[in-house]
Every structure is written in C-alpha cells, then in structure tokens.
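If you are new to this repository, start here. Below is one unmodified record pulled from the training split, so you can see the exact layout before writing a loader.
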Amino acid sequence: MSLVVESARPGGAKAPPYIGEAKAPPYIGEAVAPPYRAATRIAFRFCFLYFGLYVLTTQMLGGIIVIPGDWNMPELETLPPLKNLITWTAAHVFRVPTPLVITGSGSGDKTFDWIAAFCLLVMCTLGTAIWSAIDRKRDTYATAHKWFRVFLRFALGSTMLSYGMVKAIPLQMPAPPLTRLLEPFGNFSPMGVLWYSIGASHAYERFAGGMELLAAVLLFIPRTTTLGALVLLADSVQIFTLNMTYDVPVKLFSFHLILMALVLLAPESRRLLNVLVLNRPAPPSSQPPLVHGMHARKLLLGAQLAFAGYLIIIFVLSSRQSWVTYGGGAPRPALYGIWDVEKMSINGIERSPLVTDYDRWRRVVVHAPTFISFQRMDESFATYPAKTDVDHHTIVLTRQSDPSWKTQFTFQRPYPDHLILDGTMDGRRVRMDLQRFDHTKMPLLTRGFNWIQEYPFNR
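And here is the target side for that same chain:
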C-alpha cells in the first residue's frame, strides 16, 4: 500500500506527492559519493597499493602493532620473500655488491632502503595496471577509500606519536655528552651539529615533539583528521628539510610522510583551496561515515579513541622508562665528570704534556656507567667499555674489537675533585693524577634564556 503525503502551497496549489514506497533518502549529513574520474580511480588504486604496502613492510607497522615488553615488530621487507626480491634486484638490476647492509645500521637511507622503494614502486605500478584492467566498470571506491583513510590515519598518527614522544621526553636528541663538549666544532658532522644543537635546548626539542604529538592526536580523532593532516604536513616538510640540509639519513622515510599527508588531504583539497586561497565559502566535508546507524558510529568512534589511548599510554610509559634507564634521568656514574690529567707516568717515567706524545692522555671523561673515554694530547678520543666497582675501588677496561683484551685500574679519591688512577695497560705501568674540570660553567650550559640583552651574546 502506498502512502501519499500532500501539502498546501500559496494560491491553493498542491505540492507533488511523495510516494512512501520510493527509495529512502540518505542519512542526514551523508553525501552520496559521486563517480570517480578515470584519473582519480587510477590514482586511488596506486595509492592504496603503494602506501598500504609501504606501511605494512616498513618501520611504520611497528608503530601500529605495539605490544608491551621487549618484543618489537620486525620490518617485513627485511624478511623473506621481500628480502630475497630486494637483494636479487640489487645484484642483478643495479649491479650493487652484496651483501647489503640491512639491520643494525640506524640509517633509513641505506642502499637496501632505496632498492626496496624501487621494488615497491614497480610492483604497485604493475598491480595498478592489472587492477585497472580487471575492474574497469567500477566507477567509485568510496567504501575502500574511507577505510583506507582510517588505516593511514593510525599509521601516520602512531608514527608521529613515537617521534613526538622521544622529543617531548628528550631522548632522540640528547644533551651534548661530555666528550662532545670537548671536541672542536669543526669535527662535528652536519648531522652532529643538528643533533646536539637541538639537544642543547630541551625547550625547543619539546616544542618540536609537541607539534608532532599534536598531529598524532588530531589524526586519531575522525572529526579533526583534516586539521591533523595539515599539522602533519607542516611537521613533515620541516623534518624533510632538516634531513636534506643536514644530511640526516631519514630522507626517504620523511618524504613518504609528506606524500601520505597529501593523500589524506587530497579529498579536501577543493575546500581548502576555497578557504585558504580563493576566499570563497566551503561546504561541509563530503567524506561518508564509516558505518550507518548512530549506535554503530558511536561504537566505532569509541573503539578508535580507545586504541589511540592505548598507543599513547604505551609510548608514554616506554619513553619514560628509557629516560630513567639511559636518558637524562638515568643515574650518573660515581666518577662522572671531565678529569684533566695533571701528571702521568708510564713505567715510572713522567710524561710531559706534549701534543706530539700519542701515549700521553690529556683528559679522562666519565659520562656513562659502562664507558670511559681517554682524550689524547692531539684531542682525539679512545673509548673503552668499563666496569667500575666503587666498593673495591677498581675500574676494568675492555675492548670491543678484542674480547680477550682487559686491563684494570685502581683508583683513589682523596677529595671530590682529585682522582688517582694506577694500573697496567698494554704491559706498561700507568699512573695518573687527575683534577676535575668544572664543565658546568661552560657558556653552552650556563647562558640560559634572557628577555633583555643590551648586546647579542653570540660566541
């Protein structure tokens, strides 16, 4: 049975009837997805394949799959079969000598990484061509696109959360260690200049980390995705620029962050253009809801926020633990400090402080509980793994390059700023009288912040 609803119009005219058996209108606020253009369909297929596989095969997957404890999600590109494909391509296509550096490097711009990106690009280009050939009649990917956006939101959000947290709790760029305070500026690499200049200002490092955390939180909330993508884009451009200009080996990865931010912003590009450039009114976002029904939407929103909260808690706890374990909050060693070698004798013969004497130490630097550095007269350093026993007043040194090598010093500390080391090294009897150098009076550590400066303090 049909239901006909009529309404009066001015002048007695009647409105056209609305037939109850007709197709129901969409949900309020829900836009009907228009057909994609051919170029848009191809672009979506490629982005879906390329960035989806990039997240799943690189370090970004570990940011999403976070399990408390010491277990870390391995990068799938370093495991078979992708590892075999990449190494084969390196050897037979690019003629690169193998084996490649794969793990234990800390660099994101290894030959392996560039060839992995090339392989991914080739595979996804072929995949896009095949997908386009077998799916020619489909005119929209609205459902796949909205879930792909969720995937990208959390992949990017978790990545920015991890990077932002180790800046908000200053771990990524630590304060300059004692050995760095003694090195000539010209010995620093461009990356070292960037790392320790930021590390020297925890306020700026926390600000940079706060902006990355802001992007993460905004990306985790569906309603603020566009704003989060804009903040992410600004963060990523800044990171990429620093990586390019200071030769930081994360150029490839940071460039991908820019691209993925643009992918998130692409559906809103016309609205952003109207508001930011053309000074025109912009309609509401046309992004469809993930599910229908108010109850289902609330449940899905709650699930997303709960997962985001879980990630935030895990990263906060992990970063906090790292801070007190090996970061700036870790306990300092008992002999912490820079110690000037006032007197040094080898086999009972006192060595004058000549810059040409390679065997004569200039300073002893104790920065970490497990390492001790000796600075030679030519300002070069020799660093040894060390184990200090305060109760027995002994220091045992070893060499990473020679596990069989070992030497032991006994130490006396007549008063806090005076230290005496006595032992045998490389078959020679060595004795040193050390005086603590007060590094805390260096301008880098004492200058601080000043609102008023009559003249620039630029040294």
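Two things worth knowing about this chain: The chain has two domains: 38-325, 337-438. The longest helix spans residues 294-325.
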